[in-house]
Amino acid sequence: MSKLTGIRRGIAFVAIILGYFMALLDTTIVNVTMPEMTRQFNTAMEDMSWIVNGYNLAFAVFLITASRIADQFGRKRLFLIGTVLFVVTSILCGLSTSVETMVFYRVLQGLSAAIVVPVTIPLAADLFPKKKHGMVLGIWGAISSLAAASGPTLGGILTNSIGWEAIFFVNVPIGIAAICLAIPLIRESFDTSAGQKIDWLGVLTLSAAMFCITYGLINVSEWGWGSLEFIGYMAAFLVSIVLFFIVELRTSVPMLPLWLLRILPFNGAVLTLMMIGAGITASTYLMSYFLTGILGKSILEAGITISAMSLASMVISAIAGGMSNKYGSRLFVTAGMGVLAMSFYLYGSLNAASTEWDVVWRLVLTGVGIGLSVAPVMGASIRNVPEEKIGIASGITNMSRAIGSVLGVAILVSVLNTALSHYSGEAVNKIKLQIESSAALSAEAKEVILEQVGRMVQEKSSVGAKNAEGAVLLQLDTMEKALMSGVDESVKQELQAAFMQQRQELGQQLSQVSTELQDAFVASFSRTFHAGGWFLLLGIPFALISDRRVGKRLAIEPSIKDFAAEKDA
């Protein structure tokens, strides 16, 4: 353990937290600026999505590899390298002039985040005695929630006041501060049993497996679960992961000690974190659509509303982390998973008439579930492995959470799209019959309305009726001016009456369009939220085995010697 005491130890911990905060901030701060970047780069939203996906893909693929290299060659060294790379790529992202260069730099940024994030736990654990690890992880979880809460709000403020480039440049002072504090205060640490031989075949096969499963899940909502593309990537994942296990069983110095997977509480913690990752990401993703598409909030307003969840999580995490270290994590994590599932299910009772408070208290409940579960389960994951293996254990748990994030979004977006196809299909057919049977509306007006209806369905938003009304009114004004020129006064009066009737009919039709689509979207989101609640209940059995019972946990201190003796027996 480090010999730092008092203020110097606290400052060293701040250096670690700054690096961690910076890496996590960029997973949320970018989302709110996507519309502005789309306009500036003059490209499709599908292309822009890879600014987010590229970061997440690189992050998930390289987590375990980075953890292993840090264990072998120095965790402080990798922390500094990752932080420097993150600062440099942040500057390059802010200076990007095309989507292609932006995506490339975001991939490198995701790689640097994969280096920084997993080493923060072993570095922090090295600073403090074991009895304080629960407190440390509580703060670690609180900082995670703070990054998630401040990302959308900070991104909106910086974009509105300075420009989208500022969301990347804000990382520069944070990263420089982390580097300047870490160099003199954090001591180097290694896994002394890891050796320095790199298991290249293990790295390649595991990276291929993580790439295939992550890339496949990111694209499954577009391809479909039964598509050849998705099946092909899942088959490639299975082949790669089997080859990885074969390589690890035959090599003398494996990158991932497979005996870690024989520790039942560690496996429970890993699988629980996968479910928690699914719940956190899916809730923020779906609630963003609900708040903007159904309740008509701006992206910034939606981000501020969702921050209630992260703030609640921050408070509860700081408390639960320390308590779980004393009393064990199982009950905290199990209760957290139950609250998280319940809150997700309760989202299903929201509708277009829901108030701000109706949304906020459900989000706060979600935050309580996250706070009760994340820090305690992370604490359990490092308590139940040998101290030398905290680094690789951190990489595995973070990878599991990252995979859970894309898995949760993939499953629930598929549920949402299926529900939308059903409910909005019925609504659109009804709307078409109503509009086409209208004698007052011209053929051109009907075409514009139906085109806008299709756009609203595609965007999962029922608040676009005003856009349709504006487009049709503009067309009516143009037609009216053209027809009015050079006609008799009596004819003008007839034309004015006809156009007035069209305007009245337009208002009635658009009101009906908005109501029909709104009901369809609310029903679709309700079904999806209910399905998500039931899905997250699957995490409770994993939570129950995520830690040893208190007496047994305190009596047994896992070590590599114990596992070696067990293997030889």
Automatic annotation (TrEMBL):
Record's bilayer topology term: Multi-pass membrane protein
Q: Which UniProt keywords apply?
A: Cell membrane, Membrane, Transmembrane, Transmembrane helix, Transport
**UniProt KW DNA damage keyword:** no
Cell compartment(s), UniProt: Cell membrane
Q: InterPro entries attached here?
A: EmrB-like (IPR004638), MFS (IPR011701), MFS_dom (IPR020846), MFS_trans_sf (IPR036259), Sugar_transporter_CS (IPR005829)
Protein's UniProt keywords contain Chaperone: no
Locate the transmembrane regions by residue number: 12-30, 50-66, 78-97, 103-125, 137-158, 164-186, 198-218, 230-247, 259-287, 299-320, 327-347, 359-382, 402-420
Q: Major facilitator superfamily (MFS) profile domain spans which residues?
A: 12-454
Supply the PROSITE patterns for this chain: MFS, SUGAR_TRANSPORT_1
The record's principal subcellular location, in a coarse class, is membrane
**Protein name as catalogued:** MFS transporter
Native source organism of the sequence: Paenibacillus ihbetae
